[in-house]
Amino acid sequence: MVGIKEIAKRAGVSVSTVSNVLNNKKNVGEDTRQRVHKICEELSYHPNPAGRGLKSGKPETILFNFSDFDRSFYLKIINGISDYVNDNDYDLIICTDKSCEKYMNNSLTSGSIILDMKMRDEVLNRIASENYPIVVLDRFIDNPFIKSVVVNNYDSMYELIQSVVDRGYRHFGFVGGPEETADNKERYQAFRDVLAANHIDFQQKSYFAGNYREKSGYTAAKILMLSRELPDCLVCANDNMAIGAIKAFRENGLRVPQDIAVTGFDNCDLAEAMGLTTISIPNYERGYIAARYLIENIRGQKNTETFKIAAKIIFRDSVGHKK
Amino acid sequence: MVGIKEIAKRAGVSVSTVSNVLNNKKNVGEDTRQRVHKICEELSYHPNPAGRGLKSGKPETILFNFSDFDRSFYLKIINGISDYVNDNDYDLIICTDKSCEKYMNNSLTSGSIILDMKMRDEVLNRIASENYPIVVLDRFIDNPFIKSVVVNNYDSMYELIQSVVDRGYRHFGFVGGPEETADNKERYQAFRDVLAANHIDFQQKSYFAGNYREKSGYTAAKILMLSRELPDCLVCANDNMAIGAIKAFRENGLRVPQDIAVTGFDNCDLAEAMGLTTISIPNYERGYIAARYLIENIRGQKNTETFKIAAKIIFRDSVGHKK
DNA sequence: TTGTAAGCGTTATCAA
DNA sequence: TTGATAACGCTTACAA
Question: B103-129, pLDDT tens digit by residue?
Fold first, then answer.
């Protein structure tokens, strides 16, 4: 592995001069600069971030952490993060599991964006500091060094369900996501609040606990079909589960929306093809904004007010009009 | 940031003892071991990989590099890599752009899996070495330290097109991917070879150059519809472009497959919903296998024979039977 | 304008 | 069973 010493030797200068060239310090002669650059080029030398970070603690790199491979819109979030980060001359590394804690220190990365729910709040509270800011997606943490970027789940879900009620639907089922997650709680609460506001009854037996995966929506629908009376409309806390439910209904000869309407949340790639009524989350923008706040905070700003992203309701064929 | 010194001080021992505890050396007293572990726990201390890598050069971490966010099956590849890597007590970091070269050295990572075509062969040839093995996906590099894991594009495409010919189709169009990529070349070659074997004429004007994005398939179809005579079947080098083409056809009132059949390659999420006849690449397995070979080579094996993954043909409604 | 040397957090060697 | 110390690749005072 070619290092700074090798470059220095070949250029006939000291390592500090090479370092100065690479860090664009002005105290170095033009000819020396040229020579060093040329040699670095030839040997395709890249400073080792390990050595660099160890010393200076300013590793122009940020970390993104996620782990749910079933949620394909994550790629859009990564895309948004990646674009902002590149435009601002930072690097991005992504970790997909708990081991990312090892990289969350300011000799390797200068801040993190966290999406993985497996990363506990308490751990983040311990790691976040004056010189290691963190941005969390889809949850709220009250900490002066952690900024939350969340989707406005409540308002958009409220509006969607109210529209469905306006179309004449009165009997609802609900398939929830992981119960401890903030977004699931808000989506469910909005759903319940609309029903209450419209004096519509909802029984606990019509609630199905899922995990945001397609399979769990499929299973919920199968169970639902065993019951005596089907609801008019099955509200799902995300698209994957809604799609699973639609598949189950169709397999059993039920028509969507004539026999039962279905709604989702996310507007994933498949939602359009399946004709699913859902709520569109601007994922690219979400990543972009998260990266922007993180880098601003790394650069000294202290903005940790929670940011709420607006979502957009999209009506498609999976909901009709009930006379 | 809490480091080994802090732990040593609190435990009343030297840094080397702490290091020995953390690396499970046997030359340390049981009580000392316990005490050190307890303190690490309390402070949630993780050894800094920068310092560690710098010294020992054995950073149980591998790197994955990709950058095309439009290809959502990449998540499945990452999933496969992640699972194998975790099962073998390695860590995974992912880089999405050229800056990953910085992390491709054995003080930070011990090997890489490369999917991004923007990473040039010559660069990889320079980086790969005895103690930095590389696995490349979807391309072939002849280097004793680089293993290629590729999809058997040719055989599966050949079989698919022959089946389409068997169903009576005789007039073909082709939408290609980036011309320099190996997979596009093989898919196109198989296509041409089937036509030749069946004495079917193919004119250059029926070839459309795309870039694997949906938009380019859409555009190709739009252009195609301007020509006097439509082919019976439009063969696309991947699903995204096939889906773009189908959308364009439908917008113009053409029915698939009655007016024109369409085939893809990849079996992406949308393919099923769109009823697209395509070739299924086992992506999870692809990632898993790539990670397996990489880690085996890191551990001293020297297996750089090219590995070909079999793909599976899936007939759906986008191809019918031509009388 | 350039070079010397200390120090970043860790592991490895060797002495105690 | 432990501890002192050099070394890893790099940056940064500071000296020349």
Answer: 999 899 999 999 999 999 999 999 999
Q: Indicate which CATH number applies to the domain containing A118.
A: 3.40.50.2300
Is residue A162 located within the same domain as residue A272? yes
State whether B269 and A103 contact (CB < 8 Å). Answer: no
pLDDT per position as a tens digit, A293-322: 999 999 999 999 999 999 999 999 999 998
Nearest-angstrom CA–CA distance, A39 and A41: 5
d(CA A135, CA A125): 11
Contact pairs from chain A to chain B, CB under 8 Å = 122
How many CB atoms neighbour CB A145 within 10 A?
19
- Please indicate, yes or no, whether the overall pTM of this predicted structure exceeds 0.85: yes
Bridge-based pairing of strands A233-236 and A91-95 is unpaired
CB contact under 8 A, A105 and B54: no
Residues of chain A with pLDDT under 70: none
Residues B169 and B253 in one domain: yes
- Residues 6 or more apart in contact with residue A244 via CB below 8 angstroms: A213, A214, A215, A216, A217, A218, A219, A220, A221
> Are residues A117 and A212 part of one domain?
no
Q: Which domain holds residue A196?
A: 153-281
